[in-house]
Structures are given as structure tokens and as C-alpha cells.
Amino acid sequence: MTHRLSVPIVLLLLLLAACAPSPSSSTAAPPSSQPSSVAAAFPLTLTDDVGREVTLEAEPQRIVSLAPSNTEIVCAIDACDRLVGVTDFDDYPADVVEVDKVVTMAQVDVEAVVATEPDLVLAAGNELTPTAVIEQLADLGVPVMVLYPQSLDDVSASIELVGMAVGRHGEAAALVGEMATRVGAVEEAVADLERPRTFYEVSVFEGTIYTAGERSFLASLIETAGGEPVTGDALSTSIELEELVAADPELILLGDATYDPTITPETVAQRQGWETMTAVDDGRVVVVSEDVVITRPGPRIVDGLEALARAIHPDAFAAAP
Amino acid sequence: MRAGVAPRPIVRGPALTRAALVLGGGGAMLFVALIAGIGLGSVAIAPDDVLRVLGHRLLGIGATAGVGDSIETIVLDLRLPRVLGAMLVGAGLACAGTVFQAVLRNPLADPYIIGTAAGASLGATIGIVLPLLLPGLAIGAGSAWLGLGIVQGLAFVGGVGAVLLVLTIARSGGRLPSVTLLLTGYAVSSLLAAGVALLMVASGRALAAIFSWLMGSLAAVGWVDLVIAAPVVFGVFFLLLARWRTLNLLLLGDGPAAHLGLDVGREKLGLTLLATLVTSAAVAISGTIGFVGLVVPHLVRLAVGPDHRLLLPASAVFGASLLVTADLGARLAGGIPVGVVTAFVGAPFFLWLLRRSRRVSESLS
């Protein structure tokens, strides 16, 4: 069913992309998307996710990504070979581990960024890339675009923005179309189902419980996947144990089990105060091993959404392939 | 034998030699630190490329053909302002520490002791968290004011504001007793630090940015920061140097200084404000870097004695070279906060000195 839907949408998007000017030298896109005039597209002024205007003199050939999600976007629209700097957290696609590291231990090495002679730097919002670093690079005349997607739609918008910036509209539009189809399929599958109160455990550290913040991306993802998110404070993303007990989740998803094998449904049941929760009583404490794609706002966020939907509504997805 | 010709030759001769030695040696140290600071970094650049860029762009000699644009940018727009920023901050903190140690007659006094650091930290933390709460203030939409970021601006205002508050509370009838000043500073600092802690708990992703500011970093220093901070640091330095007699008199204690004709309350107030100004300017561009302002005055006092005519300039020079060196160490160690380096190197060295010479602790009492 998904497939039948996606074909016309992709075709339509490719048609749209063909109408837009594209300086792309892409081999993946059909020949019809080749531009008649390269000069029409660049210099190009775009507005990034935090409202900054960025002017690109020519199609970027040397791209630095300051966040793994940005790297995944660049690679998903077939511009992976233009990456000249990434972070030491980058792990996908596998090739990017070979690219020079300009972010180590969560510190941006501005000198190393400049040394790669980038013509586009893709930073991350919400202080993941420190504001001071963004301003410093911009002052040095390096085009910096901040990507700060806070919803599924935002991720698509970020992908399309990067597609525009690097002359890969066609690929971006196709990718966004495919993602929209898969999101639609999940929404349809969970539309008429009960929505369990779902608590997603991001981490528990020294008694502080971190989860999805109020109105956060993660919370909206759980909603789309057919759950009713139990949320923490919007800024700190933490929740008091008292509040969690009062919220009484019907389903607990252990995202942190991805990284820590000692976190299991059994150890959670033994935590003091947790045994009173409905989810623990009903044995609905579930390990989610896809935390990376659930919390990384790149193209694979749809994989994360599908993983969440499967965890929240296993029966609905057990039937479908 | 020429004692009858020149007045006071016995005093002037050796003191001048010593001053020339200390300042000359300090100047040489500073020069070496400057060259190393510009020449070394996370990106390896050949020394002759560095010299060609500096020679061409600063002195107009030679050419930079064959040297990449990125190399020029790294040397001129990243390393040079960073090293000059370290010099300004190091010199400013060392001077402020010297003054606070004299005004408070307390060997533990540092530039942050009566509230500057706590006030600046609160200002900077608000500056970091505010744009997250009010996206209208986010970058690209009015965070820059006179080319300075909202964080630097609020840090400076916070540092000065905190000390003004402390002075208002501590002052009574034109007098400014050191103990009252210290205790008031401590109480106000604790209050402001609680505010910082509260904001840190609620800061989410910005926690890393706040933490890095509190540890101190010179990574983001640019030319604009220098153009604004340099006049403050240099201006205050000369105003303080002009008051060297006052500073020397204050070492005698408030009572004796007053008997010798000093308006102690007024002078202390003026010196405190000047030291606060230079500390806040330094902290605004670098965050709260510890230990420089405490250790350098003691080290220099050991070498040159307690006369502020020589102590102040020597502290400035040694503070500058110490911080440039510490920052270089921080950069080469993979970008750790410079405050960690100054504490790691400064604290054991200070302890060794304390054990070697009791003069450090006794020179002020």
C-alpha cells in the first residue's frame, strides 16, 4: 500500500523539481532536472532555521557538518562526497568516519573548521553548536546555516533547505516525499487505536529522570506514533519521580537501554517507587534499541517513528510486513 | 664615591636595575609566549608561513603568495586576537588581583572576591538562556549590540552591578571596612551564584555553554572584543599605576594610612571600582578564568617586593604571559577550558612557593 502511494508522489515531486532551477551535476536525478542556466541559481540567499540569512556565492563543494543529523541529511541527498569535516560522533553512513573531525568531545575546533576551507558549514540549533561559534564563523565570512528541526515537518523542511543550498533539490524532494509517505502510513495505522500513556526514558542519572520535554520533538514523535507522551519540563527535559508516578504511564520505553545493557525491564521493576506504575504491573516495559534514530533529527527519523509505533502498537504492525 | 653628586644613588641604583631586569625578563617571556601562541595550535602551520602572513598583513613586507586563505584567516583572525585577548585578560586580572590584595589587605583576595565573578556569571548565564526562552532574541535578530554579543554585555553589566550593590551595602558613613566589604561580597556572591545554579538546572542544552563560560575560554575572542576591552584595560592600568603611593600606604592598614593624610574610604572606593571595571571587562570576553589574579601578584611580589610602582606593571606583564601560555596549553590539549589549565598549573606551583617561602603569606600582613 505504501508503495502504491509513494510512486505518484515521487513522480510529482520530481516533476516539480525539474521545473525549479537546479545547478546540480547530479547523476542520480533524471536528466530533465538539469538546469538550463547555472547562473540563475547562485549566488543564492537562503534563510536558515533560526532566521539567519545566508548567501552562497556558488554551489557548495566543501561542506562541514557540525552535527550527525546534518551529516545524514547531506549524505541522504547524495552529497556525501562533498563533506570535508564532521564530528567524532558521526557514525552514519559508515563512510563518514573517514572524514576529518572538526568537532571532538562536543567542542567545535574553529581553527580546524577554517582549515578545511569550507564553502558551507551546517550547524545545529539549541546550543548544540554554541551560539558563540556560529557568530565567530559567520564573522570570518564562512557561510553558516543552522538547522534546528523541532518536528517531523521541520526535518523535511531542513532537508529541502539543504537540498536548495547544495543544488540537490531533486534528491531532497524525492527523499521528503518518501518520508511523508512512510509517516502517512504510520498515522493511518494508529489512527483508530487506543493511545497508551507512554513514558520514554532518555536517561536516568543520579536520580534525575530525563524524558521527552513538554512540546518537544520527541513528544510529538510519540504522539504521531500513536502514544500519549508523559512529558518532563520543557527546558530541562527532566521529570520528578513523584510526577511520573502520578502520571502513571501505561507503557515505558527504555531508550537508554540502547547504550546501557544493565537497563532492562527487570531492573526497572526493581527501582524504588516504579513498581506502582501500571506499565510495570502489566509488564509493558519495553526496550527500544533504536534510540539513535529516534533522537537524531535526520532523514532516518522515520525509522525512529516506525520503531516507536511498533513498540507502542505491536499488534497493529505485527500484521503488516 | 659619587654619593655627593647624585641624590639618593644607593636607593635608586639597585632598584632601577631590578626593575629593568624584571620588566625586561617579563617582556621577553611575553614575546616568546606571543610567538608560540600564534605559531602553534590544533592545525599545524609552518613557521615561515606564519611569519609571511604576519609580515605581509601587519608590516606590509613580503607577499603571501602560496599561503592559503584559510591559513591567513587562522593566523590573523583566530590566533592573533585570541593571543592578544589572553594578554589583555591576563594583565587585567593580575592588576585587579594586586589591587584587591592591597585594598582588602588579604592574601586570599583575587579579582572575583567581592562579587565580580558571581555577578558576571549571572549576567552571562541570563545572556545564554534568554534567547532560548525568547526566540526573538536569538542570533540574527538583535543579539549583537555595538558588535558585542548579549552574553558579553550582560557579563560586564553583571560584574559591575554586583560590586556596586556590595559597595552600597558595605559602605557606612564614608568608611569602607575591609572585613565588612569581604563578608558583604561573600553573601552577595552566594546569592548570585544560587541564581546561576537555578538557571543551570533549567537550561537544558545550554548547560554546556554555561559550563564552558564558567570555566573560562578564549576561543571566541575576536577583534571587536579587543577593540572594546583594550581601552578599558589600558586606561584602568594607567589610572591604577598613578595611584601607586595610595596602594603602598594602604598596606600599612586603614588607621596608619589615614594618619598619613589619606582619605582611606574614598581611595578604597575608587580603587575597588577601577579594579572591578578591569575585571568585568576581562571576564566579559573570556569567562571566569581562575587563579591568574590570585597567584601572579604573589609571585611578582616575591620577585620585586611590595612597591606598587613596580609591582603593578610587573604583574601585568607576567599575568599576560602566564595566560597566553596557559591558553596555548589548553588549545594543544584538545580544547580543554583554560581555567582548568591555570588551576592545574597554578595551584601546585603556588603551594610549592608557599612551602618554600613564608614571605608569600606574610608579605601582606
Summarize the structure.
Chain A contains 13 helices and 15 strands. Chain A is an alpha/beta fold and 321 residues long. In chain A, α1 packs antiparallel against α6 (169-190).
Describe this structure in words.
The complex is a heterodimer of chains A (321) and B (365). With 321 residues, chain A is an alpha/beta fold. Chain A contains 13 helices and 15 strands. Chain A has helices spanning 2-19, 68-76, 110-115, 131-139, 152-165, 169-190, 217-224, 241-247, 265-270, 278-281, 291-295, 301-312, 314-319, and strands spanning 44-47, 53-56, 63-65, 83-87, 101-104, 107-108, 120-124, 144-147, 197-201, 203-205, 208-210, 228-229, 238-239, 251-254, 285-287. In chain A, helix 6 (169-190) runs parallel beside helix 12. With 365 residues, chain B is mainly α. In chain B, helix 3 (69-103) packs antiparallel against helix 11. Chain B is globular. The A-B interface holds A 50-53, 104-107, 109-112, 114-117, 126-128, 130-136, 139-140, 146, 213, 233, 235-237 and B 41-43, 68-71, 73-74, 77-79, 128, 131-133, 135, 138-141, 143-144, 149, 151, 201-206, 208-209, 212, 219-220, 222, 224, 334-335.
Summary keywords:
heterodimer; A: 321 residues; alpha/beta; 6-stranded mixed β-sheet; 4-stranded parallel β-sheet; 13 helices; 15 strands; 17% strand; globular; disordered N terminus; B: 365 residues; mainly alpha; 15 helices; 73% helix
* Largest Cβ-defined interface: A-B, 34 and 40 residues
Q: Strand order, biggest sheet of chain A? A: 6-5-4-3-7-8
Radius of gyration of chain A: 21 Å
Mean pLDDT of chain B: 85
If helices are DSSP runs of H or I spanning 4 or more residues, what is the number of helices of chain A?
13
Mean pLDDT over the residues of chain A? 86
Biggest β-sheet description of chain B: none
List low-confidence stretches of chain A: 1-40
What fraction strand of chain B?
under 5%
Query: How would you classify the helix and strand content of chain A by structural class?
Result: alpha/beta
Taken from the alpha-carbon principal axes, the silhouette of chain B is globular
